[in-house]
């Protein structure tokens, strides 16, 4: 049981992508080593960091560093970062993030995965930005961050998706449970089509860049009867558990997608360099809202495929 002393901080934080603890970050960041100054909301619980949602205001002059809202996760045992920010292998992969390589809005096409203008007719650059915090609260044992996030055209600043993103965090049986709920509202007059492929769309997670430097140590636990093709795409698949080595410690990260909101067989992408998660394509009619649900379980102790399957069944029961 936790004392009710969880605190939210909205301030400039030096997030060390090479896993320095928050208190050890340098005052003068060394950008050659991947350090960046990031603004956001750092959630502490009992004086331990749990998650950090990065919300730097968009700046065209620093496009790469300010075009996406994403959330870092921290290790339950060491309080060190487990996820990657800007830079490293594939700079657009960051913490917990959501997007689609081909987001069609009328005659415009946005790449809400890479954020740069796609090389197709109608391709336009885009960005995500925090509009406001809707809720930041706790009940003594768990905490919630809920934000309104605008997905905008980088040139006109016109919003084409209004997102409400809620991230809830708690600890249970020495594991950290993170629920990620994203409600995507179409404020326009035309249907939005969310398209892509398993490597460049959906709600996914990117582990620290260190993992990409020793991919041979990465493993994945998967449900029974899952097919894995040569491009690391698994189907049908409702969950995947990555086993990653970070600072010579193994960590088990379970990613689950709630049943019911996607059509067809669920698909996961599982790259050994540390990017994995759920992929699907869909549409959002004008004026409608698509609400998606995911759960991330961070475990410092070994999980089995059977335990992962049991946790998925529990999650599926909660979200029906």
Task: Summarize the helices and strands and which ones pair or pack.
Layout: E1 7-15, E2 36-45, E3 48-54, H1 63-66, E4 70-73, E5 95-100, E6 102-105, E7 108-110, E8 123-124, E9 126-138, E10 142-153, E11 159-172, E12 175-185, E13 192-195, E14 201-206, E15 219-221, E16 227-228, E17 233-235, E18 239-246, E19 249-257, E20 267-270, E21 275-279, E22 282-284, E23 289-299, H2 305-319
Parallel strand pairs: 7-8
Antiparallel strand pairs: 1-2, 2-3, 3-4, 5-14, 6-7, 6-13, 9-10, 10-11, 11-12, 12-23, 13-22, 14-21, 15-18, 16-17, 17-20, 18-19, 19-23, 20-21
Main traits of this protein?
320 residues; mainly beta; Beta-galactosidase, Chain A, domain 5; eight-stranded antiparallel beta sheet; six-stranded antiparallel beta sheet; 2 helices
Uncertain residue segments: 1-36
**Radius of gyration of CA atoms, rounded to a whole number:** 19 Å
| Strand count | 23
In the sheet with the most strands, the strands line up as 9-10-11-12-23-19-18-15
Return the CATH class. Mainly Beta
| Number of helical regions | 2
Cα distance spanning the termini: 28 Å
Globally, the shape reads: globular
Strand content: over 45%
- The chain-level structural class is mainly beta
> How much helicity do the residues have?
under 10%
Overall average residue pLDDT: 88
In the CATH hierarchy, the architecture is Distorted Sandwich
Structure notes:
- The chain is mostly beta strands.
- The protein has a single domain (7-319), classed as Beta-galactosidase, Chain A, domain 5.
- Helix content is 6%, strand content 48%.
- The protein contains two helices and 23 strands.
- The protein has helices spanning 63-66, 305-319, and strands spanning 7-15, 36-45, 48-54, 70-73, 95-100, 102-105, 108-110, 123-124, 126-138, 142-153, 159-172, 175-185, 192-195, 201-206, 219-221, 227-228, 233-235, 239-246, 249-257, 267-270, 275-279, 282-284, 289-299.
- Strands 9-10-11-12-23-19-18-15 form an eight-stranded antiparallel beta sheet, covered by helices on one side. A six-stranded antiparallel beta sheet has the order 5-14-21-20-17-16, with no helix packed on it.
- β10 and β11 form a beta hairpin.
- The longest helix has 15 residues, at 305-319.
- The radius of gyration is 19 Å and the shape is globular.
- The model is unreliable at 1-36 (pLDDT under 50).
């Amino acid at each position: 049981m936790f004392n009710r002393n969880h605190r939210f901080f909205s301030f400039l934080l030096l997030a060390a992508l090479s896993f320095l603890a928050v208190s050890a970050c340098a005052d003068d960041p060394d950008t050659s080593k991947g350090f960046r100054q990031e603004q956001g909301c750092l959630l502490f619980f009992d004086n331990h960091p749990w998650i950090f949602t990065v919300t730097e205001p968009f700046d065209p002059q620093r496009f790469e560093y300010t075009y996406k809202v994403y959330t870092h996760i921290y290790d339950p045992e060491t309080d060190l970062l487990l996820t990657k920010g800007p830079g490293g292998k594939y700079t657009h992969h960051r913490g917990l993030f959501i997007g689609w390589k081909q987001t069609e809005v009328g005659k415009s096409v946005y790449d809400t995965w890479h954020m740069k203008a796609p090389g197709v007719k109608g391709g336009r650059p885009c960005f995500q930005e925090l509009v406001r915090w809707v809720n930041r609260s706790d009940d003594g044992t768990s905490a919630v961050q809920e934000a309104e996030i605008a997905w905008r055209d980088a040139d006109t600043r016109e919003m084409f998706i209004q997102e409400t993103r809620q991230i809830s965090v708690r600890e249970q049986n020495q594991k950290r449970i993170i629920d990620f709920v994203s409600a995507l509202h179409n404020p326009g007059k035309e249907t939005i089509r969310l398209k892509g492929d398993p490597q460049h769309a959906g709600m996914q997670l990117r582990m620290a860049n260190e993992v990409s430097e020793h991919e041979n140590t990465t493993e994945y636990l998967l449900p029974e009867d899952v097919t894995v093709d040569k491009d690391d795409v698994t189907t049908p698949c409702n969950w995947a558990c990555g086993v990653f080595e970070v600072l010579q410690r193994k960590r088990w990260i379970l990613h689950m997608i709630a049943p019911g909101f996607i059509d067809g067989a669920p698909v996961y992408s599982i790259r050994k360099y540390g990017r994995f998660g759920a992929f699907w394509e869909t549409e959002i009619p004008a004026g409608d809202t698509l609400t998606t649900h995911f759960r991330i379980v961070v475990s410092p102790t070994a999980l089995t495929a059977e335990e992962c399957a049991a946790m998925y069944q529990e999650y599926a029961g909660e979200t029906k």
